[in-house]
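Researcher: I'd like a structural prediction for the single chain below. Treat it as a standalone chain; there are no partners to consider.
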Amino acid sequence: MRHLFIFSLLFILVQANAQSNFKIFNKQGKEISIDKFYKSLDKKQLIFFGEFHDCADIHWLQLQVTKYLHEKHGNKLVVGMEMFEADNQFIIDEYFGGLISTKNFEDECRLWKNYKTDYKPVVEFVRENNARLIATNIPRRYANSVFYNGIDHLKKFPSETKSYFAPLPIAIDTTLESNKQLMNMSMGGHKGQNMMEAQAVKDATMAHFIKQNMPENGAFLHLNGSFHSNKSEGILSFLKDEVSADQTLVITMVSQDQIDKLEDENKELADIIFCFTEDYAKTH
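Model: Treating it as a single chain, here is the predicted structure.
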């Protein structure tokens, strides 16, 4: 049954890929097949699927990857999502445990505006198949506090609050290209520093909850904006001493005017790169 499922899934994806507005490349810029992409998922313990939040095809592909990994790992699959904040984990657990209604869950979880079109299919698949869903992101009120006041401001919060973000102090590698980009943004100066710190506290918190929930002999799939995992920076910079590189796979998406060849600036962004035309179908 498992082999039939995988064959059917791959056939559908191959057909979709042939007719779609994207191509798949490895980090060196060599085009690969959908079959090779799926094989790259095997034997990986930690998989990051970086996205543009408004790409319809990427959200569909994330669901297919979730199904594929569940077929392989069963209830030893854990799915983490940037789109859920850590203080809502108990609401997720209540919903997955059948204790509250879908309406209560959706009303109380501070869901993104595009939740129903883009993320609900993954959440419901995970719930219906008895896998685990982890809210990995820092609650936005604390990230906003860092943006306006700097990372040291987090020290002032009570101990219960501190359970919702990475343990302090958070060591930020300012030599990373992604951090340099944030520092050099137009606002610059002190606000640039705070922007970098606000981003870092999100990445460190996502890394923290990934580490806490890594399954034994299973796989952890994490869905996040591509900036959080491109070039194995962002979240991965806080995991480099915890998970070996050969057990980690980073997937990202880019857009180009023409997709027959991966542009040099998009090479090395991730292990697997989905390259879309710039007019890719948007959900919002």
